[in-house]
Amino acid sequence: MKTHYHIALVGNPNSGKTSLFNSLTGLNQKVGNFPGVTVDKKTGRVQLDADKQAELIDLPGTYSLYPRRGDEWVAYKVLMGADTEIKPDMVLLVADASNLKRNLLFCSQIIDLKIPVVMALTMNDIAAKKGIEINVPGLSAELGIPVVAVNPRKNKGLTELKKTIAQMMTSGQEKPARDFMDTRQLAPGAVEGVKKIFPQLSDYAGIHYLINHEDFPLSAAEQEAVEKVETDNKFNPTKTQAEEIMQRYSRIRQIVQQQVVEPGPLERKIFSDKLDDLLLHRTWGYLILLVVLFLLFQSIFWLARFPMDGIEWGFKEIAVWLNAHLPQAWWSDLIVNGLVAGLSGIMVFIPQIMILFGLITILEDTGYMARISFLSDKLMRKVGLNGKSVMPMISGFACAVPAIMTARNIENKKERLLTILVTPLMSCSARLPVYTILISLVVDDKYYFGFLSIQGLVMMALYLIGTVMALIVSYVMKAFIRIKEKSFFILELPIYRAPRWKNVGITMVEKAKIFVFDAGRVIILISLLLWFLSSHGPGNRIEKVEEKYTVLMQQQPAQKDSLQRHLSSEKLQNSYAGILGKAIEPAIAPLGFDWKIGIALITSFAAREVFVGTMATLYSVEETDDSSLRQKMEAATHPDGRKVYTLPAAFALMIFYVLAMQCMSTLAVVRRETKTWKWPAIQFVYMTGLAYLASFLVYQIFG
To answer: What residues make up the domain containing 158?
Structure first.
């Protein structure tokens, strides 16, 4: 008997599927991509009982077995057995008790596929507030499958759900007790013909093979055979689908009338409806949205301030201790100025990364994120987008790569392409370390009225600049992209709920791990490479500099400390990194940047957050004291004595990072989504040109 099972978790969007997945799996989760596509694949381990463990596969939310979007196709192929790698033993279907009629359509289709299925009935508390009462045993008897009421947010019903799944697997029940409806009569001859080719299929699966066989992994002979069945029986997929849906809803209405008590239409509005009157108001709704965003960015500075200071102090002490105890050797220099300096550039920003993702998760959990899409639809349409573009753009605040992938939910090709092209202008979390250190250098850490941070306001302004520029670029580009297709925006607003703090905590930890282990690997690798390029040079240039200063120190022993600083600076300028930086300095000098910033602009093309690691390495190699990176950057000067990080120069650099395409991964995923290098090339050119021009104007106007 099997002791490890694969369970597909399915359900309508906003049915509580994510909450149930997190409750059942906890921290035992992995995130990857489904084979061959760029849709997130979340899997997790569930301990059903002492003997049985299951792998839970969280499939994208879908309303029915008639897919339209890319993510719906992923779920569809798994359920149809057409995915070559994912073969679930059973299905755990999540249904929203407060919208049962709509959820039962998808459930009834899965039942007729003859897949083992258990229904988890969620949102029972919301249903109760609406005055809805469901006879759970009666519903189970009508459907012929186990139905368990659960509340993932409060961990209610989960033990019974696991027990039900384990019992089903132990009993070896392979399919629902009976058909939900007689699907063979929809196309009797065609279904019979398909089942001769594929005897293992249920009648209902046979209909789907007739409709979508071109998208299934069948041999040429099988494809031809199915085509012949279609032709011989004059199979009409549109008519068949329409008849099926009508018959299903007729049966669903009977079940709901018998097993569900619903209030009359004139019952009082529930809390969510009343709250929407305010939060979706044509005036107050937008003001509240601005206040929410303002508090979000204030909190990033306010809450992260002390842990960041603590981490910075800790790494400073580590560097002091290592310098005092390690021998004078190349490998000790590598450890202190390469490894430790690179690590400090990663770890110090973990608090801000965690806080940003935690707050975004709270907005999603409460249901407010969907309202942001609704509020934004009117504005989006004016610039060539629609409300569905908001979610990828907001996701871009976290990372442009998955944000661009989520644009698959946009059916309109032109709006999808425009969304992909402008999403990288949204300031992702990788830019956060750059903004943070530059703002701390040139903006006073002052609070007005006890909570209003000037640094937080500047941070919010940077995010707004990126957002406004994305809308402007989309407005301009919509005139050049010649795709004419009608657009619709249909959005289901979820019920307002209190955030599930366990889910928030899991998300914060997972995002911190991704930042440390994914971005961190790149930062450390580039930090070590930079240490080599900063410590070595062509020929014997470094040796000549050392010989020169050895003589000067012997001649002027009283000036040893000053000469030591000049030695470190001149060695860096004669290194490979210094030579490269000096070569590009004339091109970036009009922006107020020096050659070290030039090196950081090049290295951060691998990942934006590498900027800080690059600065940490360059200044650690050059400076011999144990001051923090912020102190070293604050003291940095040009050869003529001018400070490098003046207010105009720092603002110009921030604007450059707001607008520039500084991420290879983003270009790669745009190529993957558009299936051509044309659009990534256009994206790189327009963003780099825009960043250079805007930075030049900022520096020249304020300099």
So the answer is: 4-171
